[in-house]
């Protein structure tokens, strides 16, 4: 037995060589290692020497922001200045959209989410960007179910669904939106492409069910628009993403929350600030079963080109004589273009599917 054990020991490899010393023990290493305190001090000094660009970003909750109010009343002498002075979003009072109409449209919209899934898909087939998207659609926006309807609120069923109030509501929002675009073009001094030409814009009614919690995954789904309007039926908080970061706003009941989009930003050659995507409902808690948002997006038609619009002199700022000279044949002073032209359909498809969260999708078109 002893002989067998002796043979096994002879067959074991010599891991350290014939003259190598045995591996060091903790007691022999104690003088060569930094103490825990020394190591922490060394790490702290190293981190303090790192340049600021290498510091790790911190995730912050959206900051609560006061939502500016703008009166659409004809008696508001500062209307144009008010529209220019805000960072791409404000609440509109003195508008013409009836509260009863908004509530009726909401009731019809809520009924859509009660339909069986097969009817949702058959009544609202996908024809991007229109149609129905469920919670788990592969190309969905990750923000719950949504219906996207054109300005006629058309469906594949003309007998089982009645969307008369939603259609009237969409038309009322559209009229307000077109007026705001006209006022913005006057205030910022650019030609309005949709003025007196109904073929130069489209409307998209985006009805979505929010998710519980305060998780602004994206700015409500990225689809380019000139402006977005949302009627405030009740007290709700929204998260939105502007160029200065995430913000949380709380519009007044019965006001219209207006956000200016990337197309308005390009048309104005950067004069108008913008919001990326739609505002999304925030702080919904655990029960969001009956919480929806109805957003009207006014957009260019699919086949249009987007570029800064020709410059004109703003009205209401002491430029009346110069404007008369411009009409008589002289041209307004040209300003340097900040953006190259691009195809709206290509841009819309890209930003919708790429889901930009940090980088501005317009950066690639800046000159």
Automatic annotation (TrEMBL):
<feature type="compositionally biased region" description="Polar residues">
    <location>
        <begin position="1"/>
        <end position="13"/>
    </location>
</feature>
<keyword id="KW-0479">Metal-binding</keyword>
<dbReference type="GO" id="GO:0051213">
    <property type="term" value="F:dioxygenase activity"/>
</dbReference>
<dbReference type="GO" id="GO:0046872">
    <property type="term" value="F:metal ion binding"/>
</dbReference>
<keyword id="KW-0560">Oxidoreductase</keyword>
<keyword id="KW-0408">Iron</keyword>
<feature type="region of interest" description="Disordered">
    <location>
        <begin position="304"/>
        <end position="333"/>
    </location>
</feature>
<feature type="domain" description="Non-haem dioxygenase N-terminal">
    <location>
        <begin position="80"/>
        <end position="149"/>
    </location>
</feature>
<keyword id="KW-0223">Dioxygenase</keyword>
<dbReference type="Pfam" id="PF14226">
    <property type="entry name" value="DIOX_N"/>
</dbReference>
<dbReference type="InterPro" id="IPR027443">
    <property type="entry name" value="IPNS-like_sf"/>
</dbReference>
<feature type="region of interest" description="Disordered">
    <location>
        <begin position="1"/>
        <end position="34"/>
    </location>
</feature>
<protein>
    <submittedName>
        <fullName>Gibberellin 2-beta-dioxygenase 8</fullName>
    </submittedName>
</protein>
<dbReference type="InterPro" id="IPR026992">
    <property type="entry name" value="DIOX_N"/>
</dbReference>
């Amino acid at each position: 037995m002893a002989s067998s054990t002796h043979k096994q020991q002879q067959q074991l490899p010599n891991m350290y060589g014939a003259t190598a010393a045995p591996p060091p023990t903790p007691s022999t290493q104690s003088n060569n290692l930094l103490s825990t305190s020394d190591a922490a001090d060394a790490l702290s000094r190293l981190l303090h020497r790192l340049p600021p660009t290498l510091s790790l970003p911190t995730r912050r909750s959206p900051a609560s922001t006061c939502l500016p109010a703008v009166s659409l009343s004809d008696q508001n002498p500062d209307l144009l200045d008010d529209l220019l002075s805000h960072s791409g979003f404000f609440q509109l009072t003195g508008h013409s959209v009836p509260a009863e109409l908004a509530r009726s449209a909401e009731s019809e919209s809520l009924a859509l989410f009660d339909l069986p899934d097969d009817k949702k898909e058959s009544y609202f087939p996908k024809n991007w960007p229109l149609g129905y998207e469920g919670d788990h659609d592969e190309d969905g926006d990750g923000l719950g179910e949504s219906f996207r309807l054109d300005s006629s609120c058309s469906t594949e069923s003309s007998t089982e669904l009645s969307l008369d109030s939603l259609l009237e509501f969409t038309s009322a929002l559209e009229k307000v939106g077109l007026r705001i675009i006209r006022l913005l073009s006057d205030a910022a001094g650019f030609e309005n492409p949709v003025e007196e030409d109904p073929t130069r814009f489209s409307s998209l009614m985006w009805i979505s069910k929010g998710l519980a919690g305060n998780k602004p995954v994206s700015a409500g789904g990225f689809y380019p628009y000139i402006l977005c309007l949302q009627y405030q039926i009740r007290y709700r908080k929204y998260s939105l993403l502007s160029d200065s970061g995430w913000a949380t706003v709380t519009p007044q009941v019965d006001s219209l929350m207006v956000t200016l989009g990337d197309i308005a930003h390009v048309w104005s050659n950067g004069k108008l600030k913008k919001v990326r995507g739609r505002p999304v409902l925030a702080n919904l808690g655990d029960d969001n079963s009956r919480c929806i948002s109805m957003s009207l997006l006014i957009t260019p038609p699919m086949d249009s080109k987007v570029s800064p619009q020709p410059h004109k002199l703003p009205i209401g700022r002491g430029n009346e004589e110069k404007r008369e000279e411009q009409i008589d044949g002289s041209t307004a002073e040209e300003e340097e273009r900040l953006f190259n032209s691009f195809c709206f359909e290509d841009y819309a498809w890209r930003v919708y599917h790429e889901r930009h969260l940090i980088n501005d999708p317009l950066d690639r078109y800046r000159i």
